[in-house]
Amino acid sequence: MAEAALSSLRNLPSVDRVLRQPDIMALVEKHGRSETTLAIRETLAALREEMQPGTGVDDAVIVASVLSRLDARADKRLRPLYNLTGTVLHTNLGRAILAEEAVEAASAAMRQAVSLEFDLASGKRGERDDHVRSLICELTGAEDATLVNNNAAAVLLVLNTLAQGREAIVSRGELIEIGGAFRMPEIMARAGAILREIGTTNRTHARDYANALGSETGLILKVHTSNYRIEGFTAEVDARELAKIAHQHKVPLVNDLGSGTLIDLSRFGLRKEPTVREAVEEGADLITFSGDKLLGGPQAGFIVGRKDLIAAINHNPMKRALRVDKIRLAACEATLKLYRDPDRLAQRLPTMRFLARQVDDIRQMALRLAPVLNEVLGRGVAVEAAACASQIGSGALPLDTIPSFGLSLRPTGGGRAVEALSAAFRGLPWPVIGRVTEGALHFDLRCLEDEGAFRDNLSSLRFEAAS
């Protein structure tokens, strides 16, 4: 038996012999010698484990295995997909889709040298924030502005700059936790601020803030509750009144808007959210908000407000660690410029286009696609066009939904069949991500724009329902 096994192993070619095969040489040209050699070694090692005594391996099998391994290693992990979950700003799926203007600006910044920190007028060193500072101030009414790589970083930097070793006063009802284990108390601790929580979970009054103010107070922090809301017997102090309390005691008020918006969303039929300009007018000394949520741009965290406080933030050594690169900065500038023409924003900015989309248009698409999917999937899956509700996502307007339309796919065979169907759609060249609930796979079509490409993608779908 041992002799037979040894004989089988001798039948395996050497790495050098495999490398000399014409088909493998072509792979070397495409993937490089190092990657191809590694794939050959892995293939031969696997075959040694699998071979039965007295058997051999055809060269074609080795070549096919090497090719498969190289393709798997070359396959992109970060892949484009169809977001049919019903959540427009889905954190796990990359949040906002950028406008074409932002994509072009980012591409230009990637292809060539840019005036990132170079003042073309003076020929001297410049500041990267200068490319967007005046634009942000124009759109928000703030004295000054800066930006970092996301809103969590913006909050961290503000707390560290203004309240390190001092108290940050915040309502107990605003000590939020959002996705990715972002917990406000822990962010405060990392920033070196001392948490001074006031009020109760559901009710905080002006006197609670006034009683907490003292010589150790660094700032008052107001936090947008993002992905939850307390209703019923509640009380909170609005930002305007809070600003008066803060200024009477010469303490800065920081208003963390979270998602943040530069326009009134009620023009799209959504419930009104406070805009950044309104937060400035209400008297907050600093306002922080995101770039990749309701604003519809790349991931970024904006800080706007008093000039002296922005200057202090920019002198914080942490600012360098949290700054944005040229690619994101270019996309931010292009996105912000679109807000100068709010009447055409829904046509040019994908996030607003999705939110403003008419439900009847989505319904007509669902009616066209239902028979297509019926034909692709066969009798084992019942496909029905059905009304549904979209949500904005990423903590914005957590209880609000938008009427929408989509497809409900219900295979025979119960829960396992639904999971298998969902996996089949995720396995497409362009994965399709929906929502599994109530024994069916649901696709909300609000974010589907290229209907033709979606149909073509279905040609690769492989799924057999239980008989």
Q: What does the model show?
A:
By secondary structure, the chain is α/β, with parallel strands linked by helices. Helices cover 43% and strands 19% of the residues. The chain contains 20 helices and 17 strands. The strands form 5 sheets. Strands 4-12-11-10-9-5-8 form a 7-stranded mixed sheet, sandwiched between helices. Strands 13-14-17-16 form a 4-stranded antiparallel sheet. A hairpin with a 2-residue loop joins strand 16 and strand 17. Helix 4 crosses helix 5, helix 6 runs antiparallel to helix 15 and helix 7 packs parallel to helix 15. The longest helix is centred in the last third of the chain and has 19 residues. It is globular.
Q: In what range is the share of β-strand residues?
A: 15-25%
The biggest beta sheet is recorded as:
7 strands, mixed
- What is the subunit arrangement here? single chain
Categorize the overall geometry.
globular
Strand order of the largest sheet: 4-12-11-10-9-5-8
Low-confidence stretches: 1-9
Distance N to C terminus: 46 Å
What's the number of helices?
Answer: 20
Quickly give the structural class.
alpha/beta
Q: Radius of gyration in whole Å, from Cα?
A: 28 Å
- Roughly what is the average pLDDT, rounded to an integer? 91
* Share in helix: 40-55%
Total strands: the figure is 17
